[in-house]
Write a structure and sequence with these properties.
Blueprint (H helix, E strand, L loop, with lengths): L2 H10 L4 E6 L5 H15 L5 E4 L8 H15 L3 E6 L5 H13 L4 E5 L20 H12 L4 E6 L16 H16 L4 E4 L5 H13 L6 E2 L1 E2 L5 H11 L5 H7 L6 H21 L4 E5 L5 H9 L36 H7 L31 H10 L7 H8 L9
Parallel strand pairs: 1-2, 1-9, 2-3, 3-4, 4-5, 5-6, 6-7, 8-9
Length: about 400
């Protein structure tokens, strides 16, 4: 299902949609630990989760693997980031075909950061120069199958922010106009870069509406977990840090627990103000940790651990091809990854004893008229045309002979 449709469905019920972002870990153990963390966070019922692509496409294969497992094993609606960096069209199409075959319908289309060791983005031969080109390509080749999300920059794109930390009015307006082009080309959702000044975000939303951008705009919330990491991320994104935030963090900057606790409080207050202004969805950049995200959502009253429930003994499948699945063998939970893999091709290779009963091919070949030899049917009818009325009749039919007692 498209994320934009899920968000609309949640908000139409008067609820707030929330979602989580993750990135591919560097080690195999880290990947397995990430899935455990995802499973914990997904139990709270996010509208979707997304997985990043990696600078310069450095984690492309791992991102594809994680996205597939998120959608099919973790059972959460998954959005995969896709960038233009080091990606010729053939690789882009391979990635899109891979996630489509795994039932994923959502892509976050980005230009991407420069590869490691480079300061500026360089268009790869046979690739795209910007996110707009990528959006156009996805829509022209894949039609309406994918829900396409694009990035919004409340303070303008970092590339146009000056040394004083601000974009010129002309650069800001140009950035807005470019965002509208992406939406007009087929993007149906905007997720913003992190920010710490809610007034800047609210102004950005209003400015978007003024120029005719009417799709949902989801604020990206980055919890503060430690002081040095906070400064590094804010510096990389050229994000304005309000004076009151600096004043609050400076005295406790060497106390990680205090910084994290204040970060949860500050993000909670940001979200309260955002929600009070009519915004109905939140996107949390988890940095692959869960405590801050859970703390913020609990403070907002959006989750309650005592009310976590499932309509089935497993999460309802998020894969678009498995949404009607409502029965599994009793041993499925012993090896869920294996079960999902083994049953992936049910519709392609139907099996009469165990398969998808919703499939038009569900049956056994013995029921198929061309698979039943007519001569065999006629012979069976002749053999059983005379009814069996006694034990002797049965013995005669099966050729039974009474054993002879030894002398």
């Amino acid at each position: 299902m498209k994320v934009v449709d899920k968000i609309k469905s949640v908000t139409e019920q008067g609820q707030t949609a929330f979602s989580f972002e993750f990135f591919p870990p560097k080690t195999e153990d880290g990947v397995e630990n990430l899935f455990e963390r995802m499973d914990r966070l997904v139990s709270y019922g996010p509208t979707f989760c997304d997985i990043t692509w990696g600078a310069g496409g450095s984690t492309a294969d791992l991102t594809l693997e994680i996205a597939s497992r998120m959608q099919n094993v973790i059972c959460v609606e998954t959005m995969m980031h896709l960038t233009c960096t080091n990606m010729p069209i053939e690789k882009i199409d391979h990635a899109l075909e891979t996630i489509r075959s795994n039932g994923i319908q959502n892509v976050l289309a980005l230009r991407g950061d420069p590869p490691h060791g480079q300061d500026k983005f360089v268009q790869v031969e046979g690739g795209f120069a910007c996110a707009l080109d990528l959006v156009n390509h996805i829509r022209s080749k894949y039609g309406d199958y994918f829900g396409i999300t694009v990035a919004g920059y409340p303070e303008a794109h970092p590339d146009v922010i000056e040394a004083d930390g601000l974009a010129t009015p002309e650069s800001y307006q140009s950035d807005l106009a470019y965002l509208k082009k992406k939406v007009d080309a087929g993007a149906d959702l905007i997720v913003t870069q992190l920010f710490y000044d809610t007034d800047i975000f609210l102004k950005f939303v209003n400015d978007c509406r003024q120029i005719g951008i009417n799709c949902p705009i989801v604020p990206g919330i980055m919890p503060i977990s430690n002081y040095k990491g906070f400064l590094r991320m804010a510096g990389f994104c050229k994000t304005k840090i309000p004076a009151e935030l600096t004043a609050a963090l400076e005295p406790i900057k060497d106390n990680d627990e205090a910084v994290k606790a204040y970060g949860i409080h500050f993000a909670t207050e940001m979200c309260k103000k955002i929600l009070a202004h009519g915004i109905t969805s939140l996107h949390l950049y988890t940095l692959n940790v869960d405590k801050s995200a859970i703390g913020i959502l609990m403070n907002l009253g959006l989750i309650d651990e005592s009310k976590i429930s499932r309509s089935l003994p497993w999460r309802r499948p998020a894969n678009v091809f498995r949404t009607k699945e409502d029965v599994r063998p009793i041993f499925w939970a012993n090896r869920p990854k294996s079960y999902i893999s083994r049953t992936k091709g049910w519709n392609d290779f139907p099996h009469g004893r165990w398969g998808d009963s919703h499939s038009a091919a569900y049956s056994t070949l013995s029921d198929y008229q061309f698979a039943r030899p007519k001569g065999r049917d006629k012979k069976l009818q002749q053999e059983w045309v005379v009814p069996l009325k006694s034990i002797e009749d049965v013995q005669e039919r099966i050729g039974y002979q009474t054993p002879v007692s030894p002398m």
